[in-house]
Amino acid sequence: MKGRTCALDISRTRVGVAVDDELRLFAHPRGTLNGRNQTLLLRQLQELVTREGITRFVIGLPLDMHGGEGDTARWVRRLAQAIQHATSTEVVLWDERWTTVEAKRRMQQTETPKRQHHAHTSIDEVAAVIILEAWLEANKAVEQL
């Protein structure tokens, strides 16, 4: 696979962003984007594609515990189609169950007590890192077959 991969953890307020390195070994956080304005979000993602050489987005799909899709998952699926259309890049939907729990756990391990009350501002980007790490690991295994 050529190009870099960007993972997105999408919510209606914030979108966490993570990008892999050129060797596709590590996921690096890239902050959050405003999820409230879809037009602005799509423009920012177009800029990210150009700036970072992104050729695919891995978008967290919030499935329920039984693997079903609720209203939020259907909304993310529609937004993923808009992202694919606006950026002309491949879009992969990835099961994101438990990523928020794992993101909170990671943040608690690395945050000092004074900063823990601000943790919500970056939990989305940590979740994006987790999504990208899982996707990279799964694709590394496929490439080795």
From TrEMBL:
It is an enzyme of class 3 (hydrolase). NCBIfam families: RNAse_H_YqgF. Could be a nuclease involved in processing of the 5'-end of pre-16S rRNA. This is Putative pre-16S rRNA nuclease. One of its GO terms (cellular component) is cytosol. The keyword tRNA processing does not apply. The lineage of its organism: Bacteria, Pseudomonadati, Myxococcota, Polyangia, Polyangiales. CDD domains: YqgF. InterPro entries: RNaseH-like_sf, YqgF, YqgF/RNaseH-like_dom, YqgF/RNaseH-like_dom_sf. The keyword Membrane does not apply. Residues 3-103 form the YqgF/RNase H-like domain. GO terms for molecular function: hydrolase activity, acting on ester bonds; nuclease activity. It comes from Pajaroellobacter abortibovis. Its EC number is 3.1.-.-. It is found in: Cytoplasm. Belongs to the YqgF HJR family. Pfam families: RuvX. Keywords: Cytoplasm, Hydrolase, Nuclease, Ribosome biogenesis. GO terms for biological process: rRNA 5'-end processing.
